[in-house]
């Protein structure tokens, strides 16, 4: 597969970008799903052509880090495994997030996978959409209990029922928990996505690469008025997407089908090695349906496991080095690559996160904490309850999430060591630290 790739700082499967620890290749997974055979192909590529570091991203994709000179061989091996786009120019725009439990969640209103397939096909094969930014993203929410509802998207769609009819509410530059702008019948979901993207490309200047950039200058009512000439919109008032329970990506939970469960485990600080990934793939073949799913929490699910097999699967995931309990402090920590692999990182966030996890575990605190090596917040698209922003090696500014404050939230203290952070979090009332 060959084509001229546009310049971008974002890695893709066909565009390997440099970092301090070597090249980075990002493998975009359809709905976060990957077959066991494909997972083994990723493990083989990371072992053969790179440093063996595999990352689970906050958009339910995979990255291989530390790639050396054999970039073409790595790309060819992943393409041969069916992990590439249908068109080379379509790789950048395959940014569609689903629930990790799409199609199997007992609380879902619709199975989003067929519509997702339509949308992904159009994004890849419609040349006009190849002009979208590599960061432009769409979310399709089927009402699942397991859903990331805090990641902002340029366009989001969420299932709802009104007067016995299934609709898709939608919003722009936000999240499904925001008030929706309008809705369309479920059958018009694909047409809505096409209309929104085409209208965005017509109205946005080249420097307005995201929906929020356009809407900073164009009133949203004007956008909706133009959109209503292309698709029939239904006004909805008072509907609000219910908040999903927390931590459903860790542990064993029932599926919609009787006696089947999914088992979720967290990759430590978002990282796997080839042995871990091959081991999970083996479990998927042995106990599941030969597939696994990655999540926006940098974790993975094994779906379609018989309920009686879940304890054994969990035990083997634990032996592979994955985190299987929310009581493990490390399971709730997020850390970017940090100074060991990123030129912009001001601290060794991965190493500091391990130190903080050990402190929190001793204190009996499993808290949701995000360590960011710089202001870009690459590891978390949402605002965590607690954020540590690196200012120098081993030193962090501490923020607590505050709905009235932008960015990381309210600044609480400056230039703290990890030991000082641990002591401060231990002293603070737990109710102030919950997600």
UniProtKB/TrEMBL annotation:
EC main group: oxidoreductase
- A GO molecular-function annotation: 4 iron, 4 sulfur cluster binding
Q: What is its EC number?
A: 1.8.7.1
> Per the UniProt entry, what species is this protein from, by scientific name?
Pseudomonas fluorescens
Instruction: Report keywords, A-Z.
Output: 4Fe-4S, Heme, Iron, Iron-sulfur, Metal-binding, Oxidoreductase
Query: Which gene is the coding source of this polypeptide chain?
Result: sir_3
Tell me which SUPFAM superfamilies the record gives: Nitrite and sulphite reductase 4Fe-4S domain-like, Nitrite/Sulfite reductase N-terminal domain-like
Q: Tell me which residues make up the Nitrite/sulphite reductase 4Fe-4S domain.
A: 90-231
Record-given protein name = Sulfite reductase [ferredoxin]
């Amino acid at each position: 597969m060959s084509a001229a790739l546009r310049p971008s700082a974002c890695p893709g499967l066909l565009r390997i970008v440099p970092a301090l620890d070597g090249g980075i290749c990002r493998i975009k997974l359809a709905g976060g799903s990957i077959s066991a055979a494909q997972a083994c192909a990723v493990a083989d590529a990371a072992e053969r052509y790179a440093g063996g570091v595999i990352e689970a991203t906050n958009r339910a994709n995979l990255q291989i880090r530390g790639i050396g000179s054999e970039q073409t061989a790595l790309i060819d091996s992943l393409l041969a495994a069916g992990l590439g786009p249908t068109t080379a120019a379509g790789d950048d725009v395959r940014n569609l997030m689903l629930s990790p439990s799409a199609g199997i969640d007992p609380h879902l209103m619709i199975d989003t996978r067929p519509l997702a397939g339509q949308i992904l096909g159009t994004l890849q094969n419609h040349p006009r959409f190849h002009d979208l930014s590599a960061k432009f993203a769409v979310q399709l929410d089927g009402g699942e209990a397991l859903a990331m509802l805090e990641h902002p998207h340029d366009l989001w769609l969420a299932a709802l029922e009104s007067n016995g009819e299934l609709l898709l509410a939608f919003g722009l530059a936000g999240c499904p928990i925001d008030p929706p702008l309008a809705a369309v019948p479920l059958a018009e979901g694909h047409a809505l996505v096409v209309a929104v993207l085409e209208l965005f490309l017509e109205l946005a200047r080249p420097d307005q690469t995201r929906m929020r950039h356009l809407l900073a200058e164009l009133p949203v009512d004007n956008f909706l008025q133009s959109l209503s000439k292309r698709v029939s919109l239904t006004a909805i008032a008072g509907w609000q997407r219910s908040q999903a329970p927390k931590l459903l990506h860790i542990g064993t939970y029932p599926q919609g089908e009787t006696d089947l469960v999914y088992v979720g485990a967290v990759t430590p600080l978002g990282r796997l090695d080839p042995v871990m990934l091959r081991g999970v793939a083996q479990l998927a073949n042995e106990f599941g349906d030969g597939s696994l799913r990655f999540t926006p929490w940098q974790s993975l699910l094994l779906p379609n496991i018989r309920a009686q097999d879940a304890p054994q699967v969990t035990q083997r995931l634990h032996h592979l080095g994955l985190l299987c309990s929310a009581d493990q402090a490390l399971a709730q920590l997020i850390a970017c690559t940090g100074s060991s692999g990123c030129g912009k990182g001001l601290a060794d966030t991965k190493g500091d996160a391990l130190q903080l996890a050990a402190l929190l575990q001793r204190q009996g605190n499993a808290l949701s904490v995000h360590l960011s090596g710089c202001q870009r917040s690459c590891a978390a698209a949402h605002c965590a309850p607690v954020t540590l922003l690196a200012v120098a090696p081993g030193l962090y500014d501490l923020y607590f999430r505050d709905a009235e404050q932008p960015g990381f939230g309210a600044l609480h203290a400056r230039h703290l060591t990890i030991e000082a952070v641990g002591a401060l979090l231990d002293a603070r009332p737990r109710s102030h630290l919950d997600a």
